Amino acid sequence: MWAYFxxxxxxxxxxxxxxxxxxxxxxxxxxxxxxxxxxxxxxxxVDVAEMEARYTTRDDFIKSVEGxxxxxxxxxxxxxxxxxxxxxxxxxxxxIGDKDYLKYAEATAGWYLYSDQLIVNSGDFFYNxxxxxxxxxxxxxxxxxxxxxxxSRFTGYVEGNSELxxxxxxxxxxxxxxxxxxxxxxxIVLFISCIFLSVDIVLKDRRNPSLLKGFPIADWxxxxxxxxxxFIGSVLTFxxxxxxxIVIGLQNGFGDFSLPVxxxxxxxxxxxxxxxxxxxxxxxxxxAIWFLFFIVISLFLSIIVKAEFANLFVSFLLxxxxxxxxxxxxxxxxxxxxxxxxxxxxxxxxxxYRNFVYESPDLxxxxxxxxxxxxTLLLMILTLIVSKFKRFKLIA
Amino acid sequence: MIDLxxxxxxxxxxxxxxxxxxxxxxxxxxxxxxxxxxxGTGKSTLMNVIxxxxxxxxxxVILNHELQYSSKANEVKIHQDVxxxxxxxxxxxxxxxxNHLKIYQEMWNSDPKLIDDTIVKLGMESYVKKKTGTxxxxxxxxxxxxxxxxxxxxxxxxxxxxxxxxxxxVELISQILLQKKxxxxxxxxxxxxxxxxxxxxxxxFFMKNGELKLVDDVSPGFSxxxxxxxxxxxxxxxxxxxxxxxxxxxxxxxxxxxxTLIDVKEQDTITLGAITQYLIAQRLTxxxxxxxxxxxxxxxxxxxx
Lengths: 396, 305
Description:
- The complex is a heterodimer of chains A (396) and B (305).
- By secondary structure, chain A is mainly α.
- Chain A folds into 2 domains: 2-40 and 174-388, no CATH class; 48-169, no CATH class.
- Chain A is built from 17 helices and 2 strands.
- Chain A has helices at residues 2-14, 16-36, 48-65, 73-98, 101-120, 139-159, 166-169, 174-182, 186-198, 209-212, 219-235, 238-252, 276-304, 308-325, 346-351, 353-358, 365-388; strands at residues 260-265, 270-275.
- Chain A has a two-stranded antiparallel ribbon.
- Chain A is elongated.
- Chain B is α/β, with parallel strands linked by helices.
- Chain B has 2 domains: 5-218, Rossmann fold (3-Layer(aba) Sandwich), CATH 3.40.50.300; 229-303.
- Chain B is built from 11 helices and 14 strands.
- Chain B has helices at 43-51, 72-81, 97-107, 113-121, 137-151, 167-182, 194-200, 215-218, 237-246, 269-281, 294-303, and strands at 5-14, 17-27, 31-36, 58-63, 67-68, 82-84, 155-159, 186-190, 203-208, 211-214, 229-232, 251-254, 260-263, 287-290.
- In chain B, helix 3 (97-107) runs parallel beside helix 5 (137-151) and helix 4 (113-121) runs antiparallel to helix 5 (137-151).
- The longest helix of chain B is centred in the middle third of the chain and has 16 residues, at 167-182.
- Chains A and B meet through helix 1 and helix 10 of A and helix 2, strand 6 and helix 3 of B.
- Chain B: This is ABC-2 type transport system ATP-binding protein.
- Chain B: InterPro entries: AAA+_ATPase, ABC_transporter-like_ATP-bd, ABC_transporter-like_CS, ABC_Transporter_VariousFunc, P-loop_NTPase.
- Chain B: It comes from Psychrobacillus psychrotolerans.
- Chain B: Residues 2-234 form the ABC transporter domain.
């Protein structure tokens, strides 16, 4: 079995298609580093000019209406809340000027909490205008999420021991970039890579039938070895991406593993912080289960349908399915948590963002692992059973 | 003698065409079997059935009196003892010959020393570490043969093993086959090199109409070391008529290649002398006394209209 494993492994890494997958990932990483990462503009960025403008406007307003009688209730309300708000802004501006990042983090956490409390149920105030994009009917909710997220993040900076910096505040360090990408399309990119790497893991043997058919090894063992090889190959897709990680780290710092990652709780409607290392490990575990799922799908279909196109079609359908049925808040009236396809956006599931957009408390990391892992296990057993049938041959 | 491999009433049908018809045969250890037939008559099909690459419509393959292809687990057990030479077109062009040998040695868990021994025996030292994509047809063929030798299974099936080989390597491989036979291996070979096959095969079968025919049954006494045939070149029709009138008791056949075979089985020396005198008198000096060759039989079996 070990000999077969070594043979499969060497074939895997000399397969031109597989090499192409790694090269494309490397190019993507380089493109990301050179083009996408530098143009990243966070909504909640450290913008002193904006803070000063806000502060000055409110201060002028306070000075202009202070001590006057018979003021409109809304003016009175503004007069009541603006000093507190400005206190936070002033503290932020001063802290930046003094390069006292801890103080800045403290003031910023307070500012976002204070702002969110004022805006969330108010018709008079709005979140950062960048949330209010064309066609986004949930901009206000997104703003609430964004402010809560940022408040939690900065609270984490205050409570933690990480070395603070402007790059850290704007989530530009390598680990934070990785975290952002995990919440974005990185899992999808890795899943697609895994699908392409494993799509021909069984069917490639059709090109050398007389050489391989007579190997005295059971089909299920062959499938197991092929699965392990495809899994190792899929896990190693991280390596070309590491190039991007290292370059970003050298440019903006690497961050550290204790950095806070805000996790949203749908039930409590609050954020709690998770250490970066935990967040990454949870992502790795979940993606590993997904890798296994895609690999087992390829193994199973390769025995049953014997067409690479079928492997691709079914696997891509699984990835794309959520885009087909996804609607905001649909979790409130539909059992989306029961579909494995609802867990494709791994990082968003772990961070609680999927609970937020689906408005469902049930779409959890644990439940996702159970669903996807259960499907994988079921398919593995099915593949094992099918591989025992004489009519299903690996090489026809 | 103990039977190592047995085929029992094997039948294979593709559509209306019966490719293998009720074939029953036993193979013993230390035996080389030759399969001879034109292309497309079922030699490869028979080998594929023995390997269970092609399950037969009827009949069974039995190894060591007990193992049959009744389950996939049994198939693995049988494949530990029965192997088939890979086709040279199936080699991995980006992999070296040595690595091909290594995987076969490791998969069958045979003696690692076999790799280097076989490389030396087949004179592959100069190229075995190069990628097979750079090999000539003969080099690839030698590698395929070496792979099977390295697997060292009890039963070895070889389809057209001598394809693309020069006479030196044909002889080299023939010697290795004899050595493997001496080690007790059962070797089943399909080949078109009939003279070569005749040298080392213990039993030779013709395949015709889906059946296996032992050449000794086709031509009784074929394997005996007796003078049975006079082979004459350029025997003209006119002279042949006269010859038949002079020797009416002798069976005479002219092959498509122009050779005329005179059956002299059980003829006394006087008759043989008379034949010689007649041929010399007619200036037919290109003749020989001997036995029927496999080529002759092949011609008679497949080329006679």
